[in-house]
Design goal:
flat; 153 residues; 4 helices; mainly alpha
Length: 153
């Protein structure tokens, strides 16, 4: 409670000093410009004017789209061919990469197979000492006691 009163007093004092530091603003107040109503123009502006004139006359002008369509088709066709070449090149590079990786995988598998065939068993349990070694190795290489399931204090 006492700390809350202290914070309130500090806030009041700082706000008083901040108000004293700020000089009264003598800036001129900027007024918004007064808009006068403009007379409505009888003719529409831009494309609307042409449409209104065509509607009055009742006839339409024929449009010639053949040349722009041919240009658009040729540009689309060139872009398509470029994309096709690009995809073919990426496909061929990916095939080469796949062949390299498959050769590496085969080499690693052959090496692992040779290692498995050449190495004998790590422990042979032929006598009692080997069984004791097995228990010792299980304690050494196994999880720590704190990670074991039934070990809780």
């Amino acid at each position: 409670m006492e700390s809350l009163i202290l914070f309130i007093l500090i806030g009041i004092i700082t706000s008083i000093f901040n108000k004293m530091k700020q000089p009264p603003s003598n800036k001129p107040v900027r007024q918004k410009p007064i808009q006068t109503a403009s007379p409505a123009s009888p003719e529409p502006v831009g494309r609307g004017r042409e449409r209104v004139e065509r509607e009055r006359t009742g006839r339409r002008e024929p449009r010639s789209y053949k040349e722009p369509v041919k240009e658009a088709v040729s540009s689309i066709q060139t872009r398509l061919e470029d994309k096709k070449r690009e995809t073919e090149s990426t496909y061929s590079s990916l095939q080469k990469q796949e062949e390299r990786y498959s050769r590496k995988l085969e080499a690693h598998q052959n090496r692992a197979k040779r290692i498995r065939e050449n190495s004998g068993p790590i422990l042979d349990f032929k006598n009692e000492d080997d069984i004791v070694k097995g228990f010792i190795f299980s304690e050494v290489f196994g999880p720590p006691k704190s990670k074991k399931r039934h070990h809780q204090k």
